[in-house]
Here is the input.
Amino acid sequence: MSSVTIRPVSGLHGRVRVPGDKSISHRAVLLAALARGTSRVEGFLYGGDCEATVRAVQALGVQVERPRPDTLILTSRGAHAWQEPEDILHCANSGTTMRLLAGLLGAQPFTTVLTGSAQLRRRPMGRVTEPLRRMGVQVLGREDGRFAPLALRGGDLRGIRYTLPVASAQVKSALILAGLFARGETVIEEPGPARDHTERMLSALAAPITLQGRVIRVRPLEEPLPPLDLRVPGDFSSAAFLLVAGLLVPRSHLVVEGVGLNPTRTGLLDVLEAMGAAITRENVHTVGGEEVGDLSVRTSALRGVDVHGEMVVRMIDEFPIFAVAATQAQGTTVVRDAGELRVKETDRIAAVATELRKMGAHIEERPDGFIIEGPTRLRGAHVDSYGDHRLAMAWTVAGLIAQGETVVHRAECIADSFPGFLELLAQLRSDD
Ligand code: S3P
Here is the structure.
């Protein structure tokens, strides 16, 4: 598959589950590699991104059995037993793999080289290599370590106090993980509520981490972590595509079951509710320190909204699909303070403006966001994913409500985070 053709549908109905959370899946593998013993991870996201993390820990000597694609059994003796990888580690398109591994491997007394796809090699790495150098990690890399490939060697790290210049869960996680192997205390202050899965998972494993508002304190790990036994919740960022599809396609009613509802991830829910969306949370409970529940959505009339400040951080991965929703909202939608979108898998501000315009949307690009006037009747067009999974899925949802045919080019990247997305949509359509 490289291009997919999408035709409008007259309704979406049913109860579905989405694949496991991408952020939690990466962390589960990495924390299992830090543990002594055998960990079990169920509901693992077997998409392209997380597979890169699995291959990396295997290269370090962790044994991985796979009774089913979404079940991993990982056996490790802890980080002190990791071996120097024989070859470079390839992180594919995955920023989370590269940045979290940089923190962990920067603490190891051997050399590792991290590289990735052309897309990943264009993404900023100085935000992790700069503080890691301050902790004592030796870093070599393109443009003095600002871009991958990166070569890392550590061994004698010291804790630092560091205020993150941008709210980034990947950067804070890299520093937390390095801090577990540094002398003294590592104190990290974050400017906004970036996803806190690393903190929650480490706390659940009784690791030496304490949280106080926006300040995270990490002390050296004295013993390997205990093994994990984890069920990964459904990925809210994947559910987001189905939620918006359910809101926009006429006469729809969908329930997405078992979705992670960590408040650092659910900004889109709050914004959609403010726009008038009929979404309800059901069966909310806590699993492994994370809130999980079912989301029920019905077709709704939406109105424009302003999104800025901390809300941007809480919905950072949802802007492509949010932009599709905004094209159908009555009035003006303004997004600002979202310059980080320019350094995601691709420049998501430019891509959203360029591609949605091809479908007839009224959208103005701004340096740190965009302005959309709605509602617009979208029309089918040839649109490009730029190799970015979230763009491919956003255009697919736009195609469900557009007039005529929409062709999404380079759609195979959908499997980076949501294998089976197109099949699931086909299952929900009620017009066949
Ligand atoms: C992620 C953090 C976010 C997010 C990405 C996954 C993570 O990136 O956009 O999809 O798992 O830590 P940043 O840390 O660059 O904001």
In short: The mean pLDDT is 97. Residues 23, 95-96, 168-171, 173, 194-195, 316-317 surround shikimate-3-phosphate (CB under 6 Å). The first strand starts at residue 4 and ends at 6.
